[in-house]
């Protein structure tokens, strides 16, 4: 599967270098905590497990358009601890200040959509201006382009003779009698599809 695909797509589409740096660190959630000054620079998953979990919930929740109330609930469910209104807002503010280019991009595409400009993926899929749910509108560029990457990869797999069983979110399942060989082919196809949709010469997307 694509590793944290939607975070990478969001970073590339929005041109947010801080978010891209967090992704390229190998652990976007811990990197966010470090960038926002919530943990020291030498923090690890083991030394700051709670902080990393809270940052993970924040990144995923906000990218899916959660507001304060829903994010607070998610933080509690994911961490197993009560999270105050103040702490929830602190995490929201930290994300918005750390990844301000991403949030400006979200604001811009939302305003353009309200003004009558449809949203279009890099391979031509269109969201016309009749969707009244703005969380759905804000999610569209990232989720739809991520889906386009996976779809392009699956088509290419079939063209190369790989037996694709199914795609599931950001994962592709194949049936093979030669897993070592075909896995390498599949990895290359997934990276190629990423470059095609995101218009990259050399992607830094990771494959797990």
Task: Describe the fold and architecture.
The chain is mostly helical and 208 residues long. It is 62% helix and 7% strand. The strands form two sheets. It has a two-stranded antiparallel ribbon. The longest helix has 26 residues. The termini are close together. The mean pLDDT is 95.
From the structure above, extract its key features.
208 residues; mainly alpha; two-stranded antiparallel sheet; two-stranded antiparallel ribbon; 9 helices; 4 strands; 7% strand
Layout of secondary structure:
Blueprint: H1 5-14, H2 17-24, H3 28-35, H4 49-63, H5 68-79, H6 85-98, H7 100-114, E1 119-120, E2 126-127, H8 134-159, E3 163-168, E4 171-175, H9 179-198
Rg result: 18 Å
Intertermini distance:
5 Å
Mean of residue pLDDT values: 95
Report the count of strand segments: 4
Summarize it.
The chain has 208 residues and is mainly alpha-helical.
């Amino acid at each position: 599967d694509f590793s944290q695909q939607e975070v990478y797509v969001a970073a590339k589409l929005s041109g947010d270098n801080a978010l891209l740096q967090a992704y390229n660190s190998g652990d976007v959630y811990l990197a966010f905590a470090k960038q926002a000054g919530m943990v020291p620079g030498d923090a690890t998953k083991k030394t700051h497990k709670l902080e990393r979990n809270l940052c993970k919930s924040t990144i995923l929740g906000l990218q899916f358009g959660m507001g304060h109330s829903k994010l607070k609930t998610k933080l509690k469910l994911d961490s197993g601890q009560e999270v105050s209104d103040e702490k929830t807002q602190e995490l929201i503010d930290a994300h918005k200040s750390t990844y301000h280019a991403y949030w400006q991009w979200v604001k811009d595409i939302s305003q353009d959509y309200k003004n009558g400009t449809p949203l279009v993926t890099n391979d031509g899929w269109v969201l016309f201006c009749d969707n009244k749910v703005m969380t759905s509108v804000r999610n569209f560029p990232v989720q739809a382009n991520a889906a386009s990457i996976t779809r392009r990869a699956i088509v290419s797999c079939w063209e190369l003779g790989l037996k694709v069983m199914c795609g599931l979110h950001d994962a592709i399942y194949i049936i093979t009698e030669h897993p070592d060989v075909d896995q390498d082919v599949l990895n290359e196809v997934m990276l190629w599809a990423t470059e095609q949709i995101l218009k990259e010469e050399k992607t830094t997307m990771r494959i797990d």
